[in-house]
């Protein structure tokens, strides 16, 4: 029906959840039997599109991830909601575009008292409400003050660090931290602070990636002992800077000449080793068949820091594909057929409603979600977001980079240049601007994104103070300039 | 008592409603008997002060409205809360000055995702809670996204369109709409989209004004069948642009030379015909005696588009009388004596509390209303707003037009000129500035309006993106300039 | 434990109250017996550090206050949360830094419709919930519109005036007020309006300070008659301008040559006389032993208006010690030993949690408090805020004055100059900048204050409209400049 089609494209994929919960047709039988699957969501940090074996990497080996990919489904076009860590993670946890909740910037460094509030119920809380044992391991980056702690957001267990990254070697960061404490300082860089377990300082002794893998295994064991389904958010900080790898892992990549790339590869390899360990433990515990494993990155690989996003254009921070399209796999022996690639676009924003549906969780009343449950589309191998919009928007100093994808088309405004139009289905590297050929489509897409932008919230924080000052001085977001198309045509 | 007088003028007519409801002495007997009257509120769009027979129009005939006026009461000084459609309607629906709820601009075009939230309980919801069958027919203009739909705001029935206006001829807009859909466009101008009934697309076949009158009759019939009192908000988009009239109606106005005026007159005539049809149906259904009919416009007539606001100064968009004083009548055989004119100022903001009182409705706890129940004053023929302030405020590009009326005096700051003072009781055309004669009164009025302005909200949207950007660049609202009186005197 | 130490200093003294209430070990026995003490909190207005006998004044005699000090404890380093009246009082009433609730400016003059909302439960409401009979006498200055009235904030009784100050002589202000009313004016200066009792105008006939003392005595009698514990907030407007004293009181200070100082001294003397009267009445009613009396000022003395803050630097409005360190005493025969001086810093922000603890009151769920219950530390004579931060921040025209104290150190940025560091434990007059000696400590303190600033709210009002306009034009708060330390060092 025409009218419905129009509305559905306009409001993109906004789902306003009612208290009745989300139902997943494909899984109705299992849920009826009360058999909630485990969900293991593994998030890498700044991992490039081409930096895992299952996406074609020539120089980095990721045997354990590749095995999961081979037995599961690989996604060609998985998009996160923002090309930076903090906003991307806020989106995954809340199911909202970060711009809709004022979280479109990374949190200020260090020890800030701002964060993503519990007004937006996190996926962990939703799963916990449905009976899940919930855990987060690794990097948080959604608020360092007590009220923003993972334990306040529905995670029964948290092991890791609250900032946006961390030094990988305990012997290094412990020494540096103690030195500053001895000087009487208190506002110490978050990359150096001790790790914590549920708010209590712990003394980590392993290379951080290995420590997190170890804790994930412990968590899986606990869940098994409890006979509770688990939801585990395993957020490795690797291969985010600082580039620090173990000698043994570096030894695997002697063939890589570039030192940064070599270190980066070794860091990814350590992540892959951790994945292997956890998979082994799932098997040992008899949970392997009944666990949905999802793996992706929080944003594109950072250029100049060892990553490779080929064949995508640009990298972390960009609204070109290299900024926010990431490697992704799903693995679930019970339900997912082995060896498929899924070419249709899917969103990190879809994870919240999809996990909730799979776990039989009810959504909080009035909860708005910007993605959708993709499970039925995935099972049917159809596009979950046909005719719908996928947006990416990064604010810079006095202007914004913006892009909107709908079906094969992607409209892009980058580096303060004019809007361009690409057919990303055929032109994944965004090389051929076809805006002159389809001016009406470009204008239509841009004006739709402008409509989308109207209820964006002002940022609740900025990464740096001067960024906030310039935001105000330049009367940002200046969407009048962002959504201006050169040729004011026939609309 | 001095103190009370002071407070009452200061806070103007703010009523904070308690859960005990509003009581109307004059109607206590009726309500005790459980006999709630029907309320039919008809709102014209951009109708000029002098464009109905009952206000003295020489060239436009409105026989049905005139008959209601003759048997009812006509208001000489009925003021809406803003000289533009969107903010004026937001005020009527919520009972709040639009500046108090961030709704002081028209919504952005088209298909925006912003709107007036249900945090401010709409009059429809209040009436519905009191047992009314509620309907809205016509133009909405308070939000196009699902959460702002009339059905989410207490209207059982909605028939019409969500935008700020519409093409009047189905054969025209249907064709234009289909063409754009065929081009693959989705963000299509709201003046062209199909009409809807309770969220479902319908295929309207009549001239829009006639279609809305037809649906109003249907609604009245439904209510009669249900034996429920009804609250009907009939919001004709006529005679708002585009100026489009039926040939038959145009034929009635061959005496008008000016083509725009002729078309405008024919559009008003079609509205009048609709009013006649509904009145006939009320009589046929035995509801005529027990229905309060209120008719007014959402703001003044638009100069250059066929309207005539004589003897008022300026028109739509202005803080002079022509911008926000509109024709108004009330008709209710049971209670209103025929043939009266009411000279005291009344407000569109008074409709909410007056309707609630007449219908015996309780107000939501904590609900703030900026108007008051005028029924007792109307029955007693006394000024409902003696010593109280009536404000109008329109933000422009870097400055604001503002005016405040108290009793006979009106302080006006227009077109960025100095504040002037008029005695609008004697000088309805605002020709004689008496500020030099009463500087203390002017300063007192302006400083009262400044106090009123302090808890205005920042706009939640702008009509155009560049308007919002300039708002921020120019540090609007710049009330320091708005409320500056030249001669800083003795206060 | 290192980690806890770090967190505690970072978050300063933020206490998130749970519904379980605050417990005070020292008082457990009393509360168990259900014997809640009376609390009499007396707040002077703009009283200088050196303007009471118990702080060493040579020319002003305050025999009644000195007697309380002698039998109680005197605080050397009592800090209010802001060097201006309105924000300081907002902090005392809510337990929050005014910057955290948008109350960092004085309210606009006059008759504004903004104020401190009840979203932040006031201490009076908390005490009332615990069974206290609550009263406020004197200056309110937290909102003049009905919803901000003391009676809406938990005060059973209010006698006084709502604005930020008042003329002291009824014969003067009554005449001036009546003259303006006769002119038809309504927006009359709040210094001239009649006083009120629970929202009803009253005709005060005494010198205001004496009138407030009289009403306090009446309140104490009422509480005694009710056999209820009382919480009385006695907010004298003296010795705030206008400088107006009674002839009899002036006669006591013929030795003071300077007319302003003489008048100021007489005004303080009248306050002291009132304190004496209330103490007498407490004794007469048998409540003396069981009443905690706290006396302090809302900010430092105003230079040029008769005050003396020696040995502190600067005065009202400053982030130097003279701006926000005030005289303070506590007196409670039952619990406080006579004659002590308490050298450790305490905060006006501590009053809320301390009063709540002493009165056995539960805190509202989720209530955040920026201070802490200092009772246990007071009893043990240890520093309640060891290693914690005390902040003061005043926004000016395009920049901010800021200071942070931690233990003996105070970092100060004043008059748009570079940050300085003082050892205020040894150098109370802030004369020796030691920033060059301790650059790492200075940087650490400033960066902590920057972290603290991130969740400050935008001001909900400004004292004057042009102040708000300039705030926006200059993209305030410009914390990027405020928290810039010259030497960007080793952090």
Automatic annotation (TrEMBL), chains A, B, C:
EC number assigned by the record: 3.1.6.1
Keyword Cytoplasm set for record: no
Annotated InterPro entries: Alkaline_phosphatase_core_sf, Sulfatase, Sulfatase_N
SUPFAM superfamilies with a match to the protein in the record: Alkaline phosphatase-like
Superkingdom of the source species: Bacteria
Pfam families: Sulfatase (PF00884)
GO molecular function: arylsulfatase activity
PANTHER family linked to this entry: ARYLSULFATASE FAMILY MEMBER, ENDO-4-O-SULFATASE
Protein name: Arylsulfatase
Organism per entry: Paraglaciecola mesophila
